[in-house]
Amino acid sequence: MNRILNIAVIGCGRIGRIHAENLATRILGARLAAVADIAGAAAKEVAAEFHVAKAVADYHELLADSAIEAVAICSSTDTHSRIIQEAAAAGKHIFCEKPIDYDLARIHASLSAVDKAGVKLQIGFNRRFDPSFAKVRELVVAGAIGQPHVVRITSRDPEPPSLEYIKVSGGMFLDMTIHDFDMVRFLSGSEAEEVYTIGDALIDPAIRQAGDVDTAIVTMRLKSGALATIDNSFKADYGYDQRIEVFGSKGSASAGNRTPDEHLLMDAAGLHHAKPLYFFLERYAEAYVLEMRAFVEAVLKNQTPSVTGREGLQAVVMGLAATRSLHERRPVKLSEIV
Ligand SMILES: NC(=O)c1ccc[n+]([C@@H]2O[C@H](COP(=O)([O-])OP(=O)(O)OC[C@H]3O[C@@H](n4cnc5c(N)ncnc54)[C@H](O)[C@@H]3O)[C@@H](O)[C@H]2O)c1
């Protein structure tokens, strides 16, 4: 008999809506049983759109509901570790958006609660599920490029987040670059040893006043001996720019931007094709489906999720090291971050 996993989405903002839609329409083996948002209207709206029976403002009601077996935590980052610990204590399996938290003690408390309860935890590093990025990793693991020497990631947003968002986001490295840190680990198969960061507010001085940067370059020495670079910007005029490359002793494997269509216009001014897909919701649409499918499957088959809490922790350690490096203007070893 095929079992169906009853899952609830907590937080019905930008990413919560995507996961709610996928769970309601694209994930075999899952049923979107309920949604919650502290803004009750947002929960009701999502529930109405996807025909969900239960919409509440207080997610504790869902944790107390024995029919709900798993939760997808999509609320703002400052709520994640608290909800992970409460959900684990209630025996729910957990999908949690990145980052787990900005604070290492709270992350450790969350991971301990998950271990103690024996529930599954998967972190929302969706880019691992992008078919092109996954293929590059597969090639690296198969030895197709030999020994990896350089991992190169370009990751630029089409527009900066609001200043309100920036002030509570934990900063560029913990909110945005965290995906790239995870990609460096994923693509290289190595932990980072040391991080050096330079950054500035070149787009909007108000971002500096809010305590953040909008443009950054992160360089890293990995434990494998390979080197890695990440370049980030909050504003690429041509759209969401997401490119990766692993260069090694026998070659290079890379993946570039995706466009909405493949047309090519040639005229006197040059060759023109479509701009990259606008932002993460479009660019990683497929990856969001695949990561949730993987989570549901891991729960139903009682397997360890492929992106564990430890992956979530390591990326935060890299983000904290990058932030310290920026502020102290020096290379920072990951071992300094405890
Ligand atoms: N993996 C990705 O690609 C990706 C993309 C965007 C955001 N995120 C992460 O997802 C999280 C949410 O980001 P977003 O952009 O959707 O934010 P958002 O502000 O659009 O949505 C957050 C929602 O959570 C709700 N919320 C806040 N506190 C709550 C609580 N205590 N209980 C229930 N609901 C609560 C808010 O009312 C809001 O509707 C963040 O941690 C962010 O880092 C991940």
What does this protein look like?
With 338 residues, the protein is α/β, with parallel strands linked by helices. The protein has 13 helices and 15 strands. The protein has a 7-stranded mixed sheet. A 6-stranded parallel sheet has the order 3-2-1-4-5-6, sandwiched between helices. The mean pLDDT is 97. Nicotinamide-adenine-dinucleotide binds next to helix 1. The site of nicotinamide-adenine-dinucleotide has 24 residues, from helix 1.
Share in β-strands: 15-25%
Percent of residues in helices: 25-40%
Bound molecule kinds, no repeats: nicotinamide-adenine-dinucleotide
From the coordinates shown, what is the CATH architecture of the largest domain?
2-Layer Sandwich
How many domains is the backbone divided into? 2
Overall pLDDT: 97
- Spell the H/E element sequence: EHEHEHEHEHEHEHHHEHEEEEEEHHHE
Indicate the low-confidence ranges by residue numbers. none
Task: Measure the end-to-end span.
Answer: 47 Å
Strand order of the largest sheet: 12-11-7-10-9-8-15
Classify the secondary structure makeup into a structural class: alpha/beta
> Count the strands?
15
The CATH homologous superfamily of the largest domain corresponds to Dihydrodipicolinate Reductase, domain 2
The CATH first-level class of the largest domain comes to Alpha Beta
Number of helical segments?
13
Using the alpha-carbon principal axes, give the shape. globular
Q: Tell me about the biggest sheet?
A: 7 strands, mixed
CATH-derived topology of the largest domain: Dihydrodipicolinate Reductase, domain 2
Rg value: 20 Å
Quaternary structure: single chain
